[in-house]
Design a protein that fits this description.
single chain, mainly alpha, elongated
Amino acid sequence: MTVERIVRIVAGCFVLLSLSLGVQGSPLFVNSHWLWFTVFVGANLLQSGFTQLCPLENILKKLGVKTACQTQAKP
């Protein structure tokens, strides 16, 4: 699995989790303030699209997870 796929999976999970905790119709509803976490994830995705700065991506690279370009390159 590549860095890019992991970032997308984690962002998607965070959005779904925060919506399920913040929307009143959800059986997992806790408080509507959880919707601010959805806003944070969306804002982070937006800024990383412009700046190429993603904290999770940096952490995964330091842990040795390969990027899509590294997995496609053949020796």
